[in-house]
Amino acid sequence: MLSNSSLKVIKNICCIGAGYVGGPTMTMIAYKCPNLQIKVVDINEKRIKAWNSPDLDDLPIYEPGLSEIVEKVRDKNLFFSTNVSEAIASADVIFLSVNTPTKIQGVGSGKASNLEYLERSVREIASYSSGHTIIVEKSTVPVKTAETIKSILISYFNKESSVEKTYSIISNPEFLAEGSAIKDLENPDRVLIGGEEIDAINQIANIYNQWVPEQKIIKTNLWSSELSKLAANAFLAQKVSSINTISVICEKTGANINEVSRAIGSDKRIGDKFLNSGPGFGGSCFKKDIMSLVYLCNFYRLDEIAKYWENVVTINDWQQDRISNLIIQKLFGTIRGKKIAIFGFAFKADTNDTRESPAINISKNLILEGAQLSIYDPKVKEDNIKREFDYCLDVSTNKEFESSWAKTDSVEEAVKDADAIVILTEWVVFKKLNWNYLVGLLRKPSWIFDTRNIFNLRDLKDLKNTGINIWINGQDIPN
Ligand code: UDX
Ligand code: UDX
Prior knowledge:
The chain is α/β, with parallel strands linked by helices. The chain is built from 18 helices and 14 strands. The longest helix is centred in the middle third of the chain and has 32 residues, at 222-253. The structure holds uridine-5'-diphosphate-xylopyranose (UDX) (2 copies). One uridine-5'-diphosphate-xylopyranose binds at residues 16-22, 42-44, 47, 97-100, 117, 120-121, 139-140, 284-285.
């Protein structure tokens, strides 16, 4: 309808949104397709400046392997800029990678996705694009978002300047996981491309086909592609919530969660991935995408299905509250004035991203009970932690919380005179620590709460005579 299906050779790509999805994805495409010129644009000047920083340690995103590839392609066929209109005007293909967070007010608040940024970007495309443009939904979007995009574009058709403009809309959701983005992009399980016109689908498939084998490229209709991304995230999150419920049963019964995970994961039908119990899932996607699915179900009056998926999030919230309550209870029911060392603030290892990190809720609960937190994370910046606390503790009206936490530069500093260590992110560095030494720095009696199951039998044996109390998620450790 919108397209003239012209099969011109793709040369210029624009990506709107230089975030955790847009940045690494375009870096990989630039690396694998040297014949393409790629402009990644963003309205956030600070972010673009960081992408262009000569010091690769200053890139806005930490991902293993990312800076090495950025160094190879930046300013050759990959360019970061704030000039959105110019990048749109010269693009044959535009990837939409802006954020689509859950709405926090108005209709659908707490469930529906906020498409304000996506809409703004589509309006800019309508204004500045020229000739035929393929618009690719890279951001995760609610099912039927392509309809919204079409409606906006059509509304511009009557304007004189739009006479020569045509579009194809493609859904190409990104499945990379943070922390392994480069590995996932280089060797994806699949690339999903949904659309209504086979020419446009094939043109996008040709880009990926430079390094992804044909059989891994799945071509579907638009709605299947949009829904598949929500469904995949919902299934993954459901697996995490499921194993977290089993971990609690393990603690009660004397079963061991690692043994149970291994036993059930060896069944190929279940699969051994995503069976690590922990403090609950975080990240910008799982909760948002499940709530988007719930909103969709409510819209179609599928209330039982909505409730089913919503429970995955309920269990996740409950797990975080359970862990903070357990810490308070073990520390004699009060943590007022006690120093607690938090190990890890990122929502998972190998990323500096803190969005929806379980560390936020757990820390918040501890601060509200009067604890003094000292936080160590090898990659998360202090500014980022501050932003999370300012929001969740409403620091502008509760100034007293400003001094309830501090970020430390070393684990020793975090631990000194603390009553407890709470491990919240499974960073490899935490697995290699000299626990015997660290335990000596704590105030006695003291506790280690290992929510990520990073302690092994050898660590436990080493600590046997130190008098430390240990709680490991999903294990019954005698005091
Ligand atoms: C992803 C999205 O692609 C979403 O679908 C996914 O489910 C989770 O978030 P991500 O890359 O992780 O996005 O988000 P973020 O790091 O916030 O990056 C989005 C970027 O878009 C930001 O840098 C923001 O400044 C930029 N943006 C936003 C614009 O350039 N223009 C806008 O109008 C709005
Ligand atoms: C997820 C999807 O995996 C990815 O395909 C999609 O594109 C974006 O959302 P991401 O959120 O980056 O990726 O990381 P993921 O590895 O899925 O982890 C999500 C959360 O689940 C993390 O907090 C992680 O710690 C937790 N998790 C994961 C567990 O608690 N246990 C597990 O076994 C696996």
